[in-house]
Amino acid sequence: MTIQEAAQRSGLSAHTLRYYERIGLIHSVGRDHNGHRDYAQEDLRWLEFLTRLRTTGMSIADMCRYAELRRMGKHTAGERRELLKLHRERVRSKIAELTEDLKVLDYKINRYGDMA
């Protein structure tokens, strides 16, 4: 599929896809007979995973490290797992913070409801 189709399906812009390729988050995407990028279904699955990492706050540097380890092969599985476990703990911590923030908001909303 073209870069525009991949962008539409992934929810990322074509600019972001080119950037991800340039910094090594995406391997060199295949090319069609005209030399245009030709994304495969596997590329979309990888983009979905990268999007989830980014949405949950993983840094671009950590994402690049993960991508580099992935390209190195199965013998890096343990290191990739540890990277994901560390990120999971950061996500859990952020969820706990947000839960406390939500409680404060709920309290304030209820207080204003009592005043009406």
From TrEMBL:
Record Gene3D superfamilies: 1.10.1660.10
Alphabetized UniProt keyword annotations: DNA-binding, Transcription, Transcription regulation
Domain HTH merR-type, first and last residues per copy: 1-69
Cross-referenced Pfam families: MerR, MerR-DNA-bind
Repressor listed as a keyword: no
Record has Cell membrane as a keyword: no
InterPro entries referenced in this protein's UniProt entry, alphabetically: DNA-bd_dom_put_sf, MerR-type_HTH_dom, MerR_fam, Tscrpt_reg_MerR_DNA-bd
Name used for this protein in its record: MerR family transcriptional regulator
